[in-house]
Design goal:
The chain has three helices and eight strands. The protein is of the alpha+beta class. A four-stranded antiparallel sheet has the order 5-2-1-8, with no helix packed on it. The protein is flat and about 95 Å long.
Length: 277
């Protein structure tokens, strides 16, 4: 890796996986109508052994304006905010990288979900389809790519994997940490195999459609050729016999015959009258 005069590593790319989202618990039918759920909004590493503080200087959460102090700034992990409320909203998350990174902040948005996707539209009371032990988890996986990172920051990213055990809990809420999704090679391989199977099926379907289309095209060409042959045969057929050739002077069907001429009596020679006795 070549070092540029500005301290950046040329032709080098560093990738930092992150996970962010929310975990929301329903508090039960006895809860206050404005505090029906307890939720936690977070940014964490998908690798439970990676120390995000090696890369992050602070995380700024921007909540709905109805919350007291809607702007929450955390300089130490775990990077999370826990609150209670009744409504869903979209929060903003700004990740500020360490000073030696010399990188712009990364801004994320996340919609805090309190209700399951298939919540009945007619059920006004959440206790009819929710319980207090199964949370609604909305989490996303992403990767932040640093192109030509500063050498010192690149080293910090590598050092993040050297921790055998984190010096802080994955979450201040154990019930939240228990529902963090896991990411690993096995899941990646499984996803790739499923994607491969899907693509192979789609490829077979496309081939079948092409074969059927070719067969239909050949049938259409054959039908068109037969039609043209019939048209040519109809235009050069043998003509029907004329009425003059009709047997016994019969009229040709569909055409008027010629009437025989009447004899002119005035042109006939006068005959002798019979003698009378």
């Amino acid at each position: 890796m070549a070092l540029a005069p500005d301290g950046r590593l040329r032709n080098t790319t560093a990738c930092l996986p992150i996970a962010y989202g929310s975990v929301a618990f329903y508090r039960g039918p006895q809860s206050d109508e404005h505090r029906t759920h307890r939720w936690t909004l977070f940014v964490r590493s998908p690798d439970p052994k990676f120390d995000l503080s090696q890369a992050i200087a602070k995380v700024v959460f921007q909540l709905h304006p109805s919350f007291p102090k809607p702007t929450r700034e955390l300089t130490e992990p775990p990077y999370e905010v826990t609150e209670m409320g009744w409504g869903e909203f979209e929060a903003s998350i700004r990740i500020v990288w360490r000073e030696e990174a010399d990188e712009r902040s990364t801004i994320l948005t996340h919609g805090i979900r309190l209700y399951p996707n298939r919540a009945p539209a007619t059920a006004a009371n959440p206790s009819a389809y929710m319980n207090t032990t199964v949370p609604v988890v909305a989490e996303k996986y992403d990767e932040v790519v640093f192109t030509n990172p500063k050498m010192e920051f690149h080293k910090s990213l590598l050092d993040g994997h050297k921790q055998k055990k984190l010096r802080y809990p994955l979450s201040n809420e154990q019930s939240v940490a228990d529902h963090f999704r896991t990411y690993g090679d096995e899941e990646d391989v499984k996803s790739m195999l499923e994607a491969k199977k899907f693509l192979e099926g789609e490829l077979r379907n496309v081939k079948d459609r092409l074969i059927r289309a070719d067969a239909e095209l050949e049938e259409a060409k054959h039908a068109l050729a037969v039609t043209k042959e019939m048209e040519v045969a109809g235009g050069t057929g043998v003509a029907a016999p004329s009425c003059g050739a009709a047997k016994d002077g019969a009229k040709e069907k569909g055409k008027p015959g010629r009437k025989p001429k009447k004899k002119d009596k005035s042109s006939e020679p006068a005959g002798k009258k019979a003698k009378t006795s």
